[in-house]
Design goal:
The protein is of the alpha+beta class and 326 residues long. It has 7 helices and 7 strands. The longest helix is centred in the first third of the chain and has 67 residues. Pfam families: NUDIX (PF00293).
Length: 326
């Protein structure tokens, strides 16, 4: 049961969660801003492109019509033999000239009318139909690109994520507030003296990391959680930190530890237990401890080691406590 118990949450854990939630919330907001800006920019570019495309289509139609008129007028000016024959015709009377001029004018007007009709049928219709097809195709593509349905889905998802992260952020902030309040009153810590028949006269110690007292020699242990007994706390902490299974824990000593430099105050309860000779401690939390060694108890009272001891252990070594016989 000790191996499956829930691991304690510390102020550092809550601060880390709070930092992650704040980072995710800021990232989501930045994504929303970037998407909104990109959407607005895309709409402006599409509008300009569509206006330009429509203007080019109109210009293309006008250019095609002008070219058709010019090509239709070329046969009239490219028949020198016909004009020459008219100039070389015998001289007519005034009335005959008037009649001939009238007839020629009528024929020319009729020809131009026929050319205009032919232009409309042979040139304008196919050209305009092709331009309309190209324009409609481009317009369809622009409408597909301009569709913001996918952006709306992304925005909706990000809004939901932001709401969820905000809720988690508030929860983490509340937890941090409560944990910080707890630092203003004395807390209860549990240290465990572990003995082994393989190492008589020694206890298991390690070098602390990532917390107050970093770099100091200390015992396995941690905070007493709400509703826990001292024995349950000792069993849980030893399993979490060393993967050792201990039982029959008994009270060894208690110390009152006011750590002025760290602005912390602990009541430390020392429990003790003996493991078998075949059990070997493991480094299961390398972010909290550099490693475990068996250290002679008497050597911990030497001045050169006293300065390296975590305050609760240092006070225990200078107290009336002595190791029990194995």
């Amino acid at each position: 049961m000790a191996g499956t118990s829930k691991k304690r949450r510390t102020l550092a854990d809550a601060d880390e969660d709070l930092r992650q939630y704040q980072s995710r919330l800021a990232e989501a907001r930045n994504k929303m801003i970037l998407l909104a800006r990109e959407n607005a920019r895309m709409k402006v570019l599409l509008q300009k492109y569509m206006e330009k495309d429509e203007s080019l289509a109109c210009s293309s139609q006008l250019s095609t019509a002008t070219s058709a008129v010019m090509s239709q007028s070329q046969p009239l000016s490219s028949q020198p033999s016909a004009l020459q024959s008219i100039n070389e015709a015998p001289t007519l009377s005034q009335d005959e000239n008037m009649a001939l001029a009238g007839g020629s004018l009528s024929d020319e007007l009729s020809f131009e009318s026929f050319g205009s009709s032919s232009l409309s049928q042979d040139f304008s219709a196919p050209s305009l139909g092709q331009d309309d097809f190209v324009f409609d195709s481009q317009l369809s593509q622009m409408e597909e690109v301009a569709s913001t349905a996918h952006l709306d889905e992304i925005m909706t998802f990000l809004e939901k994520q932001e709401a969820l992260d905000t809720e988690r952020l508030f929860a983490a902030q509340s937890e941090v507030v409560e944990l910080r309040k707890s630092t203003t009153v004395p807390r209860v810590g549990v240290g465990v003296l572990i003995y082994s028949p393989k190492y008589p006269g020694c206890i298991l110690i390690g070098v602390r990391k990532g917390s107050h007292g970093a770099g100091k020699l200390a015992l396995p242990g941690g905070h007493l959680e709400f509703g826990e007994s001292w024995e349950e706390c000792a069993i849980r902490e030893v399993k979490e930190e060393t993967n050792l299974d201990i039982a029959n824990c008994t009270l060894a000593y208690t110390t009152n530890d006011y750590m002025e430099a760290d602005e912390k105050h602990y009541i430390t309860i020392f429990m003790q237990a003996t493991i078998t000779a075949t059990q070997v401690p493991e480094l299961t939390e390398p972010d909290k401890c550099e490693g475990w060694v068996w250290q002679d108890w008497a050597s911990l009272k030497l001045p050169e080691l006293q300065a390296r001891l975590f305050m609760p252990l240092q006070q225990l070594t200078t107290s009336a406590f002595s190791l029990p016989p194995l």
